[in-house]
Design goal:
LipidA_mod_glycosyltrf_83, Glycosyl transferase family 39, D-Maltodextrin-Binding Protein, domain 2, five-stranded mixed sheet, 5% strand, cell membrane, transferase, 533 residues
């Protein structure tokens, strides 16, 4: 039998290899789990309005015309000046490979968001002295509902979070190897090419952490050189847009869509300063149970690097967006990795307690309360209800079973309640993403695809259609490949006088208009498409 004699440097080398192999196994396992959860049934539901519909339209315009890769335009031929085009480029590339559909529209964002889970584990390995907090932090982040939901949508924010995670990881590595400063610049540059001025805020968060934890790096030319190199593509793209559009670009992209959101509510998205706290309270259970004690533990160890990172990252960013005039639910996404780190620290503390452990009564009480509430909700959607929902019942039953078993193990003082809680939430979220409920905004208005098919089949290309619906629906524009404009009663009457008008009307509005010489082109989802004979 071969015997290993570990002495001196040989023992250290063997231990280093062992740790490296274990880390790669964890990274691989987390990545596979994330890819399954983030890509399963990705294209089964239509794109939702606003962000998804708009992003898909711009990406299709880029895909159709090489001239639009640098200066994207929307369906109406108007310049798209709202956001930089990195995600639109990636989606257009996906269209080139897999065609224009829901799956290719959502795939780039889903893959980038899924990559954030192993990156967060790597961040944990940089800041914690042992592996358990890194593992629990990554697993908690894996099963956070708001990150999963927005990461699977054709939006920009999931990718933003992963780019920032990469930036933070490079920042932590650069404390030991200055070459990683280039990665800091690349990460911030990717953020800038995705969502513009957000890169300045997240860059300020990163530099504030350095100022508190490792101020010597702020005087390093490697850091500022890396940031300068990463910023060059962003500066070049902004210069190209300004050269093409002049003050129209600066007024729209820089002022209206970025700077003005700081001091005023854009498009009526005005909420009180505690709006994001309510968002976290609504969607972060069951992990909010462990967050207060995790934050208290973090504050008590604020002289450690990991605590400084959590406090600056979570507290600094949350304070900044809470003071902004414009508030949207997905703006809070970059806070969730910091929350996961704080919760992971607390779960690691629970895991290390000897059996039988005495876990806090409030944690057991909240788990029990969640179990009772979700069992009640599951029974509500059972076949005994007049309007049963099998999908929602099974999702709630999975959550209820998880909470019940976890509470029972916690009462017994068994640390396995943590593993059951994480695994049960993963299974429940798998059921969730296979259901029709994961894009719940689709139930807020009529089904868009049948109406879009009618418009596409019965109207000429590049024609504008006017509708009596209350607001414009970018998803309808995308699927119909036409511009469908929301109009009031007087505007509809005026459009009817134009040559070859096309109106999409609900029946009450059609009866009220009393249009002469009407020709019906068909109806779908309760809407009629009409023109003049």
């Amino acid at each position: 039998m071969r015997r290993w004699i570990l002495t001196g440097d040989n023992a250290k080398h063997w231990k280093s290899q062992l740790h490296s192999r274990a880390d790669w196994l964890w990274i691989g396992g987390l990545l596979l789990a994330a890819l399954l959860l983030y890509t399963k049934n990705l294209g089964d539901l239509p794109l939702r309005d606003w962000d998804e519909g708009t992003v898909a339209q711009v990406a299709r315009e880029i895909w159709r015309s090489p001239a639009n890769w640098l200066h994207p335009k929307t369906i109406g031929g108007e310049p798209y000046l709202n956001k930089p085009p990195l995600m639109h480029w990636l989606i257009a590339l996906a269209y080139t490979i897999g065609g224009v559909n829901e799956w290719t529209s959502r795939l780039p964002g889903a893959l980038l968001t899924a990559l954030g889970i192993p990156i967060l584990y790597s961040i944990g390995r940089e800041i914690f002295h042992y592996r358990q907090p890194a593992i629990f932090s990554a697993l908690v982040y894996l099963v956070m509902l708001p990150v999963l939901r927005h990461g699977r949508l054709a939006m920009l924010d999931g990718a933003i979070v992963s780019f920032f995670l990469f930036t933070v990881w490079c920042l932590l590595r650069s404390r030991r190897n200055l070459r990683y400063c280039l990665g800091v610049g690349i990460g911030l540059g990717l953020i800038g090419l995705t969502k513009g001025m957000v890169g300045l805020l997240l860059g300020a968060i990163a530099l504030l952490f350095l100022f508190w934890d490792t101020p010597r790096l702020l005087g390093s030319w490697y850091l500022w050189g890396g940031i300068a190199i990463g910023s060059l593509p962003v500066a070049a793209w902004y210069a190209a847009q300004w050269w093409q559009y002049g003050h129209q670009f600066t007024d729209r992209a820089v002022v209206d869509q970025s700077l003005s959101r700081i001091w005023q509510a854009v498009e009526n998205h005005q909420h009180p300063p505690w709006f994001y706290l309510l968002e976290i309270l609504k969607y972060c259970f069951p992990w909010l149970i462990f967050l207060p004690s995790g934050l208290l533990y973090t504050w008590n160890h604020r002289n450690w690097s990991w605590a400084k990172l959590i406090l600056v990252w979570g507290g600094g960013y949350l304070l900044a967006i809470s003071l902004m005039g414009t508030k949207l639910p997905w703006y809070v996404l970059p806070v969730y990795p910091a929350i996961a780190l704080a919760v992971g620290v607390q779960l690691a503390q629970f895991w290390q307690q000897p059996y039988p452990a005495k876990y806090p009564r409030y944690a057991i009480a909240f788990l029990t309360l969640l179990a009772v509430a979700t069992w009640a909700a599951s029974f509500y959607y059972s076949p005994w209800n007049t309007d049963p929902d099998w999908e929602l019942q099974w999702i709630l039953a999975a959550v209820a079973g998880t909470m019940t078993f976890s509470a029972w193990l916690a009462v017994r003082g068994d640390r396995q309640f943590i593993a059951v809680l994480i695994w049960g939430m993963y299974v429940a979220l798998l059921l969730f993403v296979t259901s029709r409920h994961w894009v719940w905004e689709l139930a807020e208005a009529y089904q868009v695809k049948p109406v879009a098919a009618l418009i596409q089949a019965r109207t000429p290309p590049n024609r504008e259609i006017y509708t009596s619906f209350a607001y414009n629906r970018p998803s309808l524009d995308f699927y119909s490949d036409r511009r469908v404009i929301s109009s009031n009663f007087n505007q509809l009457q005026q459009q009817w006088q134009q040559p070859h008008p096309y109106l999409l009307l609900d029946r009450p509005t059609l009866e009220r208009l009393k249009l002469p010489a009407i020709e019906s082109l068909g109806q779908a989802s309760g809407w009629m498409l009409v023109t003049r004979e």
